[in-house]
Amino acid sequence: MYQLLKQEGRAKRGEFHTVHGIIQTPVFMNVGTAAAIKGAVSTEDLEHIKTQVELSNTYHLHVRPGDKIIKQMGGLHKFMSWNKPILTDSGGFQVFSLAGLRKIKEEGVYFHSHIDGRKIFMGPEESMQIQSNLASTIAMAFDECPSSTADRSYVQNSVERTTRWLARCKNEMNRLNDAEDTINKKQMLFGINQGAVYEDIRIEHAKRIREFDLDGYAIGGLAVGESHEEMYHILEETVPFLPLEKPTYLMGVGTPANILEGVERGIDFFDCVYPTRNGRHGHLYTNHGKINLFNAKYETDERPIEEGCACPACRRYSRAYIRHLLKAKEMLGMRLCVLHNLYFYNTMMEEIRDALDAGEFAAYKKRKLDNMSRKN
RNA sequence: GUGGGUAUGGCGCAGUUGGCUAGCGCGCCAGAUUGUGGCUCUGGAGGCCGAGGGUUCGAGUCCCUUUACCCACC
User: Which residue among the candidates A45, A143, A215, A271 is catalytic per the annotation?
Assistant: First the structure.
């Protein structure tokens, strides 16, 4: 159940009640594709860096270790020892990101496993079954994410198919939630809006999927090659056609600036690999812009990544030390960097919520953007 | 002391029978990366080839001298 607490312009401040606790929005979900945040980050760590929601991937967990094994182990929460909300991505995005390894048909998608090459079929029903086995808090509908450069007729057909798939997802989810051996009988379902950069297709699709009365609505297929301006424009045009009384989720986005712009346009949920992937590569977010710890100028830098930061890395380690760890390929280096970046994102979301509560989001956003663009 | 070997950008090396603005890996520097295949990709800076002399139209490549280091034998 979503409760809209406050609005500032189109920006929403809300609470999303789930069987695994309340999610304060806007929120940034921390990406742990294979039931783990890459970089040797434990779920215990997540409790220290303000993580509210963990995100895992249906496709990856289906391939390894197998959703049936996870069900046997009591579901994803028990398996990875994390009792707060988990959102599972449907596997739909892999249709896009693993392009070349797939064949899309009306019934679903044929993949080749990136692990061992074996052929896998996944359609709406399979995706729902897998996600039900994983027993995540929120399941995502199985969709197709067409390329941002796909032509109009392709996108039109693709989106119509995604709508048909959504109907099948909802039916299957209802059936599974009623089944006797289902772990999470209150699993929620978010639908996904598509339409590439064609605003009329986006709007039409938004109207269609809201008729399904889902638990939340995502906007997919953005930040895949189009410009930031196009992305913001699509958000401005599309979000107003999604129900205000339900959470909105901008999938796969993004940079801190993207998130601030997204919040301003009415987005509640975000997720992105940036803080984790960039952390592993030594790119660290600070309030004065991004820094690359691999740079030689940090070789003898005794300062923490960011002065005043309370994350596990900044509390006791210097840039010089962490740089050394990264260059020596010590796991601890990645770990500290990922922790810092996630802490940065999670803290920024907290600041955004506080600003919204105080009715000062616009001012906060401007200040944050100004600071981050400053050279240091 | 004798014999042999090596000296080419920060490090490790390629450089054919001497021939265009001397390459490569790593490193360094700067970017990219948006529902993650622990990656990958894209640029950039930096050597006049140990030093000196000679042969030649032309030498990192041949000759002489010299210096440093390595190995072996005394």
Answer: A271
